[in-house]
Design goal:
The complex is a heterodimer of chains A (149) and B (146).
Chain A lengths: L1 H19 L4 H8 L10 H18 L21 H17 L3 H7 L5 H20 L16
Helix pairs in contact in A: 1-5, 5-6
Chain B lengths: L6 H22 L5 H9 L5 H24 L12 H17 L4 H10 L3 H24 L5
The chains are: A mainly alpha (149), B mainly alpha (146).
Chain lengths: 149, 146
């Protein structure tokens, strides 16, 4: 049941990304081109997604446990550290270069395009490189980079 | 009429994305973050049961992508750029950056903003601004990329 739910949710998510226009890198770059011929349509993707999820989140939290699992696994950190800001910056730059973020790139693999395969292969190498170069995700961050602690 | 990427389609597609994220939380108690799901598939030390769930999600994404291509072939890109070095560097930055920052457009954007998480609000603002700046520099300062 759990495995099937992951498969079906992946498919639903992919169809949403495709219909929304997020799987077309030229469309994404047009959306990011605020100072040129700006294409605002993709703003509505984030708007629609956050609105639905905002309601869904509030309907779910407060329940004793998820339908198919024993507990909720929701991030609790609230501190802004150098890794968050540096990582988001690197991601934003890569997104602006290619017009792909991780989800749409994976969906676009279905096109069989070797360009997409190249991007996704490099992305997975990037995942591994992070684990190799910067070991733990949170506890060993230098003191002083984590305001609020 | 739904044409992938026009405003009604963007709103409808966005709602489906939000629905998938909401159902992931309701059924499995997890945040739907693609970079985390995909990285956990190959990370050293991931238990086999975890790898299986993540593989199922990614296979679902591929299946969804395939179905999409049957109905809306224009939604899937063909060739993206003749500059393969650029594509490789961009992929590396997206992979490394999303892990370092703990999320991407789905985990920080769609899920984190719906939870009003301060980390996600900051991360989303940063990657949006840097993405806009990158396109600005490439298109309007450098005059485009070959």
């Amino acid at each position: 049941m759990k495995i099937l739910s992951f498969f079906l949710l992946g498919a639903l998510f992919a169809v949403g990304l495709g219909i929304s226009g997020m799987t077309q890198p030229q469309k994404v770059l047009g959306f990011l081109d605020v100072f040129g011929a700006w294409d605002p349509a993709l703003m509505f993707v984030m708007g629609g997604a956050v609105a639905v999820n905002f309601i869904g989140f509030r309907l779910t939290v407060g329940r004793p446990h998820p339908l198919l699992a024993t507990r909720f696994d929701i991030p609790t950190r609230r501190d802004i550290d150098w890794q968050l800001v540096t990582g988001a910056s690197l991601f934003g730059a890569g997104w602006g270069l290619a017009g792909f973020c991780p989800g749409p790139a994976l969906v676009a693999l279905a096109s069989g395009s070797t360009d997409v395969l190249l991007f996704v292969g490099a992305m997975f190498i990037g995942f591994l490189l992070k684990d190799l170069l910067i070991k733990p995700a949170s506890p060993a961050m230098p003191a002083g980079f984590a305001p609020g602690r | 009429m739904l044409e992938p990427g026009n405003i009604p389609a963007a709103l409808f597609g966005g709602a489906l994305i939000g629905l998938a994220a909401a159902l992931m939380l309701a059924f499995n108690g997890r945040i739907l973050g693609v970079s985390g799901i995909a990285a956990g598939l190959i990370a050293a030390g991931s238990p086999a049961s975890e790898r299986l769930l993540r593989a199922a999600f990614l296979l679902g994404m591929l299946g969804g992508g395939w179905a999409l291509g049957q109905v809306f072939p224009q939604a899937l890109p063909g060739a993206i750029s003749s500059n393969h070095l650029l594509l490789g560097v961009a992929g590396l930055m997206v992979g490394f950056g999303t892990r370092l920052g703990g999320g991407c457009t789905s985990g920080h954007g769609v899920c984190g903003m719906a939870r009003l998480s301060p980390r996600s609000l900051i991360a989303t603002a940063v990657f949006m601004l840097v993405g806009i700046l990158t396109v600005f520099v490439i298109r309007h300062v450098m005059g485009g990329l070959a």
